[in-house]
Amino acid sequence: MIKIYDYDKLSIDDIFAREEEDTSRLENTVAEIIENVRKNGDAALKEYADKFDGGAPECLEVTEQEIEEAFKTVSPELIEIMKKAAKNIENFHKRQIRQSFIISEEDGAICGQKIIPIEKAGLYVPGGTAAYPSSVLMNSIPAKLAGCSEIVITTPAKGGKVNPVILAAAKLGGVSRIFKTGGAQAIAALAFGTESVPKVDKIVGPGNAFVAEAKKQVFGKVSIDMIAGPSEILVIADEKSNPSFVAADLLSQAEHDKMASAVLVTNSRSLAQKVADELEVQIPLLERSDIARASIDSNGKIIIVNDIETAVIAANEIAPEHLELCLDNPFDYLDKIKNAGSVFMGRYCPEALGDYFAGPNHTLPTSGTARFSSPLSVDDFIKKTQFTYYTKDALKKVSGDIYKFAMAEGLGAQAKSAVIRGEKE
Fold this sequence. Notes:
Elements: E1 3-6, H1 12-16, H2 24-40, H3 42-52, H4 64-73, H5 76-93, E2 101-104, E3 109-117, E4 120-124, H6 133-146, E5 150-155, H7 164-173, E6 177-180, H8 183-192, E7 202-204, H9 209-218, E8 223-224, E9 232-237, H10 243-254, E10 261-266, H11 269-282, H12 289-299, E11 301-304, H13 308-318, E12 322-326, H14 331-334, E13 342-345, H15 351-356, E14 382-390, H16 392-408, H17 412-424
Parallel strand pairs: 1-11, 4-5, 4-7, 5-6, 7-8, 9-10, 9-12, 10-11, 12-13
Antiparallel strand pairs: 2-3, 3-14
Helix pairs in contact: 2-3, 2-8, 2-9, 4-7, 5-6, 5-7, 6-7, 8-9, 10-11, 16-17
């Protein structure tokens, strides 16, 4: 059963302690997988597919025929829903597109910044205990808007077949190529390339502990979006909130992972008890009740505060992945929220809106990293380069200043390079 705490009677460390998964045991295993893929390429990928996915596919790459056949098997209703979601995601993310700029001075000095898309983006799509076509759309659409020339997906293929809904979402999202490989081995393939899987410039997308550890180990060879931890939700609710709604929202993330964190912060002791009771009603009804039960019992918390202002302070301290403000006047508090991946406003805005449909990205910082990290965006699929141009006269005006600045740092060669053009002409 979920635990109830008083905010002012326990230390911050006690209230905000999270049960963390020990990943040290994974390091050697993941390192061995990565090295095997580096050395043996496709053969290693097929070896792991045979071991973990119930059989190795003859061809690692999904064919156009497979995509078309999969598209036909998905219900037309779901296709239409995914199209609506894709449109919302595109409408939101296209406003993130950056523009290059030039600063031109009258004295002949020109500086600027050029926006360049990452050429090859690798998208990891989970396919273990659940399939996530929503992740396909959330990752592929920003990459496409950024202008990536190649968008590659890796995803587990049970018995050599990729979930058809994943393939349908990939088609809607404009994915270039799809490969039947998952786990740490897929991350290694994207980072170093194999005979079939192209080496990419950046890897994005969520995964289990093995995937997270693999992303950590290949970082530097390629860029990554983030090291995503278990799912999190924090709900701020008052005495007017419906306990059934709040419990359902807490469980919407608790069912993802036994390590997921679901937290309610409220100024109502009555609501706290009603939500705790309602959780016991709803958990047995869930298809993934075992996972939700483990998550709620181990990591679930209800924190009672004196007022909503204190609830906001608590939320900023926790820096949750998802934050719900189940209040009549949520916009009164929005400017006070400093640390959250994504904020859901009001009594009729469940976190599921963000996961599937509204448009803002659902790939979010976890484990308190919302203190310094941001949701996945178009920015994740671009890079910036700078350029500078000075005429002879423009350089002459500043060369003396550059010389003195460089000499102050003890770098004589740099200082010399600033004035040599004037000395040798």
